[in-house]
Design brief:
14 helices, five-stranded mixed beta sheet, alpha/beta, D-Maltodextrin-Binding Protein, domain 2, 341 residues, seven-stranded mixed beta sheet
Length: 341
């Protein structure tokens, strides 16, 4: 009995010693979260900056939490379908996403303001939403619906077409066009086009088969999805453009609430630190877009001030009016957005 008691005591002491001397990285529990997005994987400096943003975020968060928080990235909608991501964030079945927020307009109509034609006219203006009443109200709405903004990302966009360039509203008459959400669809229809709603990741197939004649999307998507291969012309975003979309890095509130206060502090700080990287990447792609399409033999054009104002006039009578009349507090939200200069 004494011998058995001695052995038990020795075993306990040895176990305690091992635990005490184990590396902190082994002793600490690791939380693993999944980040899904629709964009192509990036392996080089010219890759999709949105995937690069996700990779940087994951690497910095893991390093700054000492490995206690690890983020797995699923690019190219490999984890779930593009249009399922917004709902999954709300329900907590997806932890994080770099997501065009307007995709969620069917569930949360207020977010269609983040792709309202000509409402945002520069990257700097868009980023100023963050600290303005419109940004604070948007964050409040999203958190009540189950998600939280970590990185504010805006992107300008252009128009790729299978035929002649689409510059003026008159150029869109009779064309089947992808806009991106309800607000852009109303603008397209108001210009005499026929709007078709599908995610950026499906534009290539739709244009190659004739389902679409033209498509509005971000400069980065116009490049990353190789739409130059199925287009003959592009209207760039390097000058004037009525297409600015909010594509933030989001975390579900369910995932946020599972984090420790220290981890929450890290993901918040890392997320904010990547906003300048995102803006630089988006601006670079606005310029690179023209080079990529010109190299493919496509016609490259820009929009001037007078043409831009033609689009604004249509937007006011279609998209703006619909939002203000059909979305809860729509008029107040539009007033807050328009107050940001």
């Amino acid at each position: 009995m004494k011998l058995n008691s001695f052995r038990v005591l020795a075993s306990v002491l040895i176990s305690a010693s091992v635990i005490a001397t184990a590396p902190a990285s082994l002793a600490a529990e690791t939380t693993v979260m999944k980040l899904s997005h629709q964009f192509p994987s990036s392996t080089g400096p010219d890759g999709d900056f949105r995937d690069q943003l996700a990779q940087r975020f994951a690497a910095e968060v893991e390093q700054k939490t000492g490995g206690s928080l690890k983020i797995e990235i699923y690019s190219g909608s490999s984890l779930m379908k593009t249009k399922s991501q917004f709902s999954a964030l709300r329900k907590g079945t997806l932890d994080l996403s770099v997501l065009p927020l307007a995709y969620g307009g069917g569930e949360v109509p207020e977010v269609t303001i983040t792709l309202m034609p000509a409402l945002v006219r520069s990257y700097e203006q868009g980023l100023r939403w963050k600290t303005a009443p419109i940004g604070q109200e948007l964050e409040k709405i999203l958190e009540a619906k189950g998600m939280k903004i970590l990185t504010w990302v805006w992107q300008a966009g252009g128009i790729a077409s299978r035929g002649e360039p689409v510059i003026k509203p008159a150029d869109m008459k009779g064309l089947k066009v992808r806009g991106g959400d309800r607000s852009m669809d109303l603008l397209i229809n108001g210009a005499g086009g026929a709007a078709t709603n599908l995610p950026s990741s499906e534009i290539y197939s739709a244009m190659s088969t004739g389902v679409l004649d033209a498509a509005l999307t971000s400069s980065t998507s116009l490049i990353s999805y190789r739409l130059n291969e199925v287009a003959k012309a592009v209207t760039t975003a390097r000058g004037k453009t009525f297409w600015f979309m909010f594509e933030p890095l989001l975390i579900s509130m369910d995932a946020w609430n599972r984090l420790t206060p220290e981890q929450q502090k890290v993901v918040t700080e890392v997320g904010a630190s990547l906003e300048s990287f995102a803006m630089e990447g988006a601006k670079r792609d606005d310029q690179r877009l023209a080079e990529v399409y010109a190299a493919s033999g496509d016609k490259v054009v820009d929009m001037d001030d007078a043409t831009f104002e033609e689009w604004v006039a249509i937007a006011m009578e279609t998209s703006y009016k619909h939002f203000e009349e059909n979305v809860k507090n729509g008029k107040a939200l539009m007033d807050m957005a328009r107050s940001v200069k």
